[in-house]
Structures are given as structure tokens and as C-alpha cells.
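Intended use. Records like the one below are meant for learning the mapping from a protein sequence to its folded structure. Do not use them to infer anything beyond what is encoded.
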Amino acid sequence: MTDASDGITHIPDGFKSGFIAIIGAPNAGKSTLLNQLLGTKVAITTPKPQTTRRPIRGILTTERYQLVFVDTPGIHDSTRTLNQVLVGWAKQVLSDVDVVLWVMDVAKVDQHHGFILGLIKNTKKPVILLLNKIDLIAKDRLLPIIGDMHQRFDFASIIPISARFNNGLELVIEAVLKFISVGPLFYDADAISDQTRDLLAAEIIREKIFLLTHEDIPYATAVDVEDFKEDLERGQVSIQATIYVEKPSQKAILVGADASMIKRIKKLVKSELETHWGMKVSLDLWVKVHKKWSRDERFLKRIGLIEK
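Structure written out for the chain above:
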């Protein structure tokens, strides 16, 4: 959506750079916003809440600035180990950025507003409120929401947007740049994300599980890429990954009759990765049961959801 540069041979005077957190409740549209800002997919998106499980950095570089957006898991109050880990990621990101973008879904009443307000009041960083999904509500509902949020917190700016339809995102960039200082290139000018290819593969596998399965199946799954090999000369990638579930019944659904479900997941993942990388992808998927993995801190560390 912006004039992204194909490369910068030298950093001009006044070049700005900084880090921006994207926070919000589950399913508020944070990952959609990140992808739209960059003009490419770096974060998985699904209609289901709590899709994002770890911070993902998306890098937008032009001849005038480099903005590093950090997409975070949905913030919500929960006592489950995994959910507390996800909220912990978001809290950590808040302390490491220059600006905060709070993405709020205006199409529904959000029970997590108070919890998020409590977090941002302690950040001492400029917070820009993005009222997302304005395409889903009547225009006359916006002003009361804006007025109410102005009363709750001293926002640096409040901007109505529709991330899905790329509406208002130029205003978001302009608002962010007001709080970004002159600085260096933190990443190569042509970098789009710091996400490794094996992590992207794991995320795409999770995304297809979210899209193809229902009820508790998506939330009961974790993906571990156990082997990842690239052959750049031949243009090939070989991936071996295991999908973990918590119950045998969940495994049966995820595998499907005659392995029909796992074959569908594999086909969609291969197709997307081959298109994204422009390389041939060989993908092996296994499904294993790990009871209560979402409460197992050692397991969460092994798959990278808790820092070691």
C-alpha cells in the first residue's frame, strides 16, 4: 500500500526508523492489518480468534523510513498456561517498541477492552487506537465510540479503518511517523520479515488446520517442524513436521477417513508455500497425541512458544 523501495544505496538525511507494536483482542484484525501494510502475507489469518501465537515482525521500508511492525497474540484474561504465555508475549513487546497500535473491532462489544486499557496505561508510549472493521457498522455508530474511548485514555490519535479493504491505512502510517525518530536501517532494505522459513511453514500448516477443522481441533494443535532442508540450486525445499493434539479423538478427526483431512491440509500447504517461495516443496506430515501439551511448559519451550 506504500511506495516500498526495492533497495536503498545510501541512507538519506532525515531517514526514520522504529518499532511499532500491533496489539488487540483476539480476532480484532491485527494480522490482516500487518499483511495489508506490507502488501504481502507474513502473518497467518483466519476467521477464528487466537490464531496468532507468537510475535511476528513485518518490515516496511521506503526511501524515507523503515517501520518494523510487531504483530502480537490476542490479549485476553485467562488462567490457561498457553494463553498466559501468549499474553506474556504481547506484554514483552510493549516494552520494546516506540509506538503502539491498538486494533479494536468496532463491530462487536469487546470484553477485553478494560484488560488492554490496564496494560497500555503502564506503557508510557504513544498509543494510536485503530477502530477496525468500520465496513461492518453504520457510520453514525462511530462518533459515540470515538467519544467514549477519548474519555478512557489519552490516545495519540484515533483512526477508523478497515484493514480488510485497505481503508485508512495511509493515515495510520502518517500517524506513526509523527512518533518515529531519525535512525538507521535495522534490516536490509529488501527484507519483509525476520520470520524464518521453517517457522513460516509451521504457521501455514496451523492456518490450514484452523480453516479446515472446527470446534476445539484448531486450538488443541501445535506444529513442530522437525527437519527443514533447502536445495537452492535445484529449487527444492524438504519439510518434515509433526502436528500435536491432546486427545486420540482429535487425531482421528485431523487425520480423517483414509487420511482425507491430512491430505487436504498437506495439499493446501504445499500449494501456498510453492507459490510464496517459487520453489518445489516436499512435505511430510505426522499427527501425534501429546496429552495436555498446552499446559506443558517444557513442551512449549521446545516448540518455541516460551523462550528458553
